[in-house]
Amino acid sequence: MRVNSWNEWDPLKHIIVGRAVGTMVQAPEPAVQRDWPEHGFSLGTFGRFPKEMEEKAEELLDDFAEILESHGIRVDRPTPLDFSQPVQTPDWKQETMFGCMAPRDLLLVIGNEILEATMSYRSRWFEYLCYRPLLEQYFKEDSKMRWEAAPKPRLTDRSYKKGYWEKFNAMNHNEQLESGKARDWVLTEAEPLFDAADVARCGKDLFVQASTATNSAGTDWLRRHFPDHRIHVVHFLEDSPLHIDATFVLLRPGLALSNPERPSLVPGLKELFDKNDWEIVECAEPARHGKASLSFCSQWLSMNCLVLDSETVCVEAGETAQIKQLEKLGFDVISVPFWDVSPFGGGLHCATADVCREGTCRDYFPEQIEGF
Ligand code: NVA
Prior knowledge:
By secondary structure, the protein is α/β, with parallel strands linked by helices. It is built from eight helices and 19 strands. It has a three-stranded mixed β-sheet. Strands 7-8-9 form a three-stranded mixed β-sheet. The longest helix has 20 residues, at 51-70. The model has no long low-confidence stretch (mean pLDDT 98). Bound molecules: norvaline.
């Protein structure tokens, strides 16, 4: 086996698919506060997801893994921990962990390197341990693999703006959007923080979303860590952006999907794509409206697809408009029932992390834009 993946579309050979078992509605912490009274978890309460939800999600994840295997792709799975246990460092104690359904959030694969992201939630600080059995194995099996971990963050109160959620919750939606425009989110710049799922990989170019989980120090760290890449910091209109893959999705050379409700706030992005003859297509209308119960993800998971090669893509089975649109764009679509997995942390792209795709590092944007 080998670790090798430079983009989101080269032929997929080996992938990790997450697991839902044991996932928690996590206890409140400075970065995130769940408040779902209508589903039994009002602010301050926490606990394991209902058993029937967990069983359904596990079944769908297993089915997805089987579909991938039937296409000749090797699939590995993480090892869940007891996420209900309290965790602590010398700086803080957190009542619960979260889960390991979304390897994309944590593992950034660039070429032969797998980089463990910092993460920014205390409940996710130890999540990397779920992937260690696999990473140890890859390190043994592939003598060229580079295994890296970004500096473990302290996540003390210095890393979060004091009183952020009270202020945010008191705003109307327009004010929340304005604060998103100003990149006024919960994280401070005390230390580098990023989630791997804020990165869209495109050969030599990496698009990194400024978000509620990824601060400027985090993008700066990535820039210094990958000196041979061009890091483009992108920013879309959204009050609380989290992860780029329901906002801006790279499908194949020359083609990207954008979210019509979340336009880019950095002009350089469109300029760069235009200048290099890439088309940006607005994604289709999602089939659902609003969030599933106990979910922090939006209906835009409709565009959170997994590309198997530049002609084949996995899309959530209920997203008929999205499926039609991708077929029109020339893809063979594999429809995968997955909506009931969304409360556990996302869609088909979130639930996976590439280990190997064929291909090499190419330059898809030879014409660059100054200052972007
Ligand atoms: N935060 C995104 C999901 C990212 C996969 C959304 O809710 O649309």
